Predict the 3D structure of the following.
Amino acid sequence: MVILEIVLQVLLGLTSLLLTLLILLHKGRGGGVSDMFGGGMSSTLGSSGVAERNLNRITIILALIWIASIVGLGLITKFQGA
């Protein structure tokens, strides 16, 4: 059970960092951090719609993994004392 808890904690840390980076890369409505890293230039290209959809999908998958690891850690903490 201890190994599972450590794996979930590492997974939570990694997904937290990746979610932060992916959310910052999303195309903003009025510019912002995504324009600073070249997000504004990609809107002139023809493939920006596909790239944005893929970024959305990856972000949603990572968010689901993040939520699952939080729930898993909560369940481990709840039943560990019993």
Q: What stands out?
A: The chain has a mean pLDDT of 84. Residues 5 and 76 are 7 Å apart (CA to CA).
